[in-house]
Every structure is written in structure tokens, then in C-alpha cells.
């Protein structure tokens, strides 16, 4: 008898793809996808149940199906994808609390996998070269996805203490890139001109979307437990990424980046959160020793190859036309000038 796996967050791209991957795994007998809206994409042979993890009804879904493995992929990264910051916070934190409460009540649940993020380490000039899983943020994320993910992990640790017989895995994944995945960072690199922090060239690590989903599959069907960093090997600097994408850059003084971000968000250029701005200034590096030794996983793509794959499939290679570059640079400088006068 194979595993019965519940995937929370199945209506988003990664959750839907993950459910479809699980249905093809011979070690899995049934997959149940849960979300508040029907998935707009193919989820294979997975059964979809319309349910909100913020509602205690999720406990009934787990009980009726005798779920033994729960994969929590319902932590939202951007406010625009949740209908605003308040709704995002409710889904991420309150939803996690309710889901864990349902798992705690269920005698059938034996395994919990949480898709977390390397954003819990924050980004600061005092960071180590590589964060191990035992390290903590030098400067805690104080807003958005990073802050929510720290709270989510705290609730998961509390659950693990209350149900020590349940195997718990938290994967702290580097930034996803790939042909179809959409994140605040992929939106940033899709801009015709990249605003950067003046005087900074951060190191970045990525995980290609297929590799990230494979890591989650191994975690869901395996026996390991604990916190595990997941990232492609090596690093790539922001200036290298800009050259690969053929994108010109416009340096913005770091003290003005917050004002610039507000203007850029209002103009619909992307989701420039404070955490993203700090990442674009200071970067982040992950130690992936446990990924190899505990998870038993080696990504097919290095960080550079993952980024190149994203650029190739999105047809983002430059250079852009001179007119397009000049027009965009003038627009960005036009926004930055009033911000500088008002600072």
C-alpha cells in the first residue's frame, strides 16, 4: 500500500506540478490536492478538494482520506498573489496553524513536509559566506514572506515537539527560477532595465524549478527528517546575471531604495518588498551539505545553469534596442530624482 499524500496549495503553479509528479510515483497510492479555488492547470490523477486550510474543515479532509503524509506548499510569497498583505499573512500564518492543528489531531499522519525558504536567513552585510541550517539571521526579516516563514517554522517546531513520532522535514529552498515559475525575483530580472543598489554586487543562489520539485518529492516519499537547505551549487553575482540577461542596470543609492520601491510598485514594475531590496544589496549563500548527505539529492542545475535556463526559456536575452534602453533609463531616473529631493 503506497502513501496517501495531501498537498496544500495545489492551485498555484508549483503545487499543481508537484501533485502531478506525485501521481506518477509508484510509491504513492493517492494524492489529494487542497486549495480555495480549483487548479487552473493539470494535476494529473490527483483528487482535488476545495477547502481553506484556515478553516478547521481541513481536519475532516485529512481524517476521511486517512492521509499519512502532508506537504505544506501554501505559504504565499507575494501580497499580490493573495489579495493584499493582510490576506497573505492570514493564509501563511493562520493557515499553517490550522493545518498543523489538523495534523496533530490525526492519528494517520506520520510525515509532514514544509516548503520553506532561504529568506528566513535574511540578508545583511554581517552574514556568513554560507548559512548552515543551524545558523540564524543576523538581521531578521521584518516584513513579508521572510517574516511569515520564520513564524511558520516556529509553529512547525512546536508541532514537532507535540507529535515527536511524526517525521518533519523543512526544506529551505533557494530562489526558484525556471521556464514557467513566477516569483518577485523572476519579475525583477524580466524588467528591461534592472535597478541595483549603488556600490553592491550581491551573491545569489538559485534552484531550478524541476530540481526544487524533485527535492520535495524525495522529502515526501523518503524517511529523512530535519531542516535542509536546497540550492544549486555555486553562486552568481547580480552583475553576472545582468550580463547573461543582456540587461543594463541603473544604480540607486541604498538609502533611497525604499522610496524607489514604493514608486516602482505603484507603477506595476514588480513586487519590490524590503526583503527583496536587502537581498538585491547583500545577497545570500547556503551551505548544502545536508542536502547531499541527508536528503541524498544533487540538483541537475548549478545556480548559474538554473538562471541561464530561466533566461533562455523566457527569451530574455539582450541586448535590447538602444531606444528601449534609453527610454527605460530615463523613466527610472525620472522617478529616482523626486525621491532624492524628498529624502
Would you kindly provide a written description of the structure presented here, covering whatever features stand out?
With 343 residues, this protein is of the alpha/beta class. It has a domain at 3-177 and 208-231 and 287-299: NAD(P)-binding Rossmann-like Domain (Rossmann fold), CATH 3.40.50. Helices cover 41% and strands 17% of the residues. The protein is built from twelve helices and 13 strands. It has helices at 13-23, 58-65, 85-105, 144-162, 184-189, 209-221, 238-245, 257-266, 274-282, 289-293, 303-313, 322-342, and strands spanning 3-8, 28-35, 47-50, 69-72, 111-117, 167-173, 175-177, 194-197, 203-204, 206-208, 226-230, 236-237, 249-252. A seven-stranded parallel sheet has the order 3-2-1-4-5-6-11, with helices on both faces. The protein has a two-stranded parallel ribbon with strand order 7-10. A two-stranded parallel ribbon has the order 8-13. α1 links the parallel β1 and β2 (28-35). α3 packs parallel to α4. It is globular. The N and C termini lie far apart (64 Å). The model has no long low-confidence stretch (mean pLDDT 89).
